[in-house]
Amino acid sequence: MITESLDSDKAEQIVAIDLAGRAAFTDRMVIATGLADRQITAMAQRLEKKLHEAGIKRVQVEGAGGSDWVLIDAGDIVIHLFKPEARGLYGLEKMWGAELDEVAILASSTIEPAPGGETG
Hints:
Elements: H1 2-8, E1 12-18, E2 28-33, H2 37-53, E3 60-62, E4 69-73, E5 77-82, H3 84-90, H4 92-97, E6 103-107, E7 110-112
Parallel strand pairs: 2-5
Antiparallel strand pairs: 1-2, 1-6, 3-4, 4-5, 6-7
C-alpha cells in the first residue's frame, strides 16, 4: 500500500528495505524521492491518512511543511521522503542496503538492483 501510494504520487526511486531482525527500531524502511516541497508534503499527508485508514493509529510525521526530508514513523515501518540532494547526502540505501540480502527498488514500475544489494 505504501509503495503504491508513493508511485501514484509520482515519487521517484522508491526503495523498500527489509530490516526485520536487523534493526531494533523498525522491520521495514521505505525511501522515496520527491522533486518539490509541495509534492513531498502531499505524499506525506496521503500516506498518513492511508496508514490511519489501514488501522495504524500511532503515526508520527516529522519535517512536513517545507523540509528536504520528511520522516513518517508508523512503528514497524519507517518511511523517508527526500528531495534528491538530501537523499544523496544522507545515503540511507548505502547505510542499510550494503549488508542486506534483499533490496527492492521500484522506480516508476521498474525494479532495479540497489547499490550493494539485489532485487527481490
